[in-house]
Amino acid sequence: MNLNATLFAQFVVFFILAGFTMKFVWPPLMKALDERIQRISNGLAAADRGKEEMQKAHEQVQKDLAAARDEGQKRISDADKRAAMILDDAKKAAAEEAARIIASAKADAEQQVNRAREELRGQVAALAVKGAEQILKREVNAAAHADLLTQLSVEL
Question: Pfam families in the record, alphabetically (predicted)?
Answer without folding.
Answer: ATP-synt_B (PF00430)
